[in-house]
Amino acid sequence: MLSSVPESDTVIVADLEAGIGTLTRLPEASVQSTLVVVEPTPRSIDVGLRAALVATERNQGHVTIVANKIANQDDDTRVRNAFADHDVVTVPEDRVMITADRRGSSPIDVDPEAPAVTAISDIATQIVRSGIQNAK
After folding, report:
1. What is the distance between the alpha carbons of residues 59 and 51, in angstroms, rounded to a whole number?
2. To pair with 112 at 20 to 30 A between CA atoms, which of 6, 25, 64, 123?
3. DSSP characters for the chain?
4. pLDDT 10s digits, 15-46
5. pTM score
6. CB within 8 A of 46, min separation 6: which ones?
7. What is the predicted pLDDT for the residue at 131?
């Protein structure tokens, strides 16, 4: 899919399937940035560690870990300790996400000021800024 997109200064964000399969199939060095989304559970952290390793080995740009559904400091510490060699950004656990999912709505439409919405918006802004700077 990504190989069919012409090179430009356009930022493309793709939500790929969970796991490492997609990363192993991407051509080496085909993206500028890889976000690995993990939850603060042992299984999710294990898969995230493998994904970050594959992305790094295949030169898939800057690897950032998105610690999702962070409920407390212990959750945050667990993810940061596991990914000490990577940048980690957090998205807090937030009922707005569940409410939006049940309504079939976007979380930003349910509550644009919700903590998780704000965190995701900040991450998106960073991606766009980084993509624009890398394109120059």
Report:
1. 12
2. 64
3. -GGGSPPSS------PPSSSHHHHHSPTT--SEEEEEE-SSHHHHHHHHHHHHHHHHTT-SEEEEEEEEE-SHHHHHHHHHHTTTSEEEEEE--HHHHHHHHHT--HHHH-TTSHHHHHHHHHHHHHHHHHHHHH-
4. 666 667 777 667 676 677 888 999 999 999 99
5. 0.81
6. none
7. 59
